[in-house]
Amino acid sequence: MDCIQFEKIYRDYKKDVYRYLLYLGKNHHLAEDLMQETFARAYVHLKPEHAERVRPWLLRVAYRVFIDKMRKESRIQYFDAEYFNDLPEVETPETSFIKKEKHEAVCEMLCSLTEVQRQSVLLYDFKGFSYQESADMMGIGLSRFKILLYRARQKLRKEQHNQSVFQSLYSDAI
Asked: Checking phi first, is residue 139 left (phi over 0); if not, alpha (psi -120 to 50) or beta?
């Protein structure tokens, strides 16, 4: 089939195919997309023997295009944005390097603490033991443990503040 004949078929039947697909899909944009797909298939597969009954043939092709689209969409799963927030992050070399740097900085800050302060922070903040469990493991009273933990955290905050000031001065110098 030549282009001139196909253009005539397109002009004659595009509204019929569009209305039929709009009726099936109830969506203007979907009907336009499927109409294009219908005529693309018709351009490839339309034979001269279909010339006398083009309209029913086109509507049958349009229906099959619509069914194909619906089947394809039924296999696709749509997820809310919250689904992607729950996915584990893929670790990139950059995030791995940043994590390593943070770990080294935390280790340096922990080394600045006394042994009992370091132990109190590690037991409570890192290992997740309760105040009482941590105090029992260290063999000290609960109030003494809370004081150690408080002072250790204060020292860590001060150390972190000093490092951030140093980093901002360093980045300004560069």
From this structure: left
